[in-house]
User: Fold this.
Amino acid sequence: MQRITCVLQVALLRAVKRCAILCLMITKPMNILFAAIVLLLPAAFPQNGSQSGSGPEYTSDSQLKLPEHYRDWVYLTSGFDMSYNPALAGMDHHMFDNVFVNPEAYKAFVETGTWPDKTVLVLEARGAESKGSINQKGNYQGTDVMAIEVHVKDKARFQGKWAFFPFDSNKTAKMIPTSADCYSCHADRAAVDTTFVQFYPTLLPIAKSKGTLSASYRKEVGVPAQN
Assistant:
């Protein structure tokens, strides 16, 4: 009886060893496979919050490439028939303009109250419609984009840090010369870092709280200078 028990114990030990070896043989490849899947997942399924390609991109002859997916960026504001040029006050049509900014720049502004390098602001102009569907009063935006202007901050590329690029039907645009009035207007009248944050309702309070309002804007609206 003892001999039978001993034989059974030896057989059991051998079975346990074979099972352990088999588990190790299976587990090791599975661990390797699991590690490979973990490494490949970010590339196969990029996170929605990643916007690594939303900075300015240029052609070999220094033209700016249109950021075609700007409508996936952060929306800042819309204006109706706004113009900083008195000569345009008598336009024979109505227009909306919408402003978008790349997500990285928006996040930095919320944290600091000013724009980081590689900020890209897109102003999109659309015609205003008044007659359509059930609308009886007021205006709504048309489907056709009438113009796009991009304002870029790139310290290494532009002497004044910022530059303007007007787009028509092309996917690239040449920089507006710095002698144009838009540069001096933005420098003299903009609320934050040569940008019209005074017209961005969610960002103006942030700039006020962070103390980043320009001296010219504080003087214009009667805000005391900050120490």
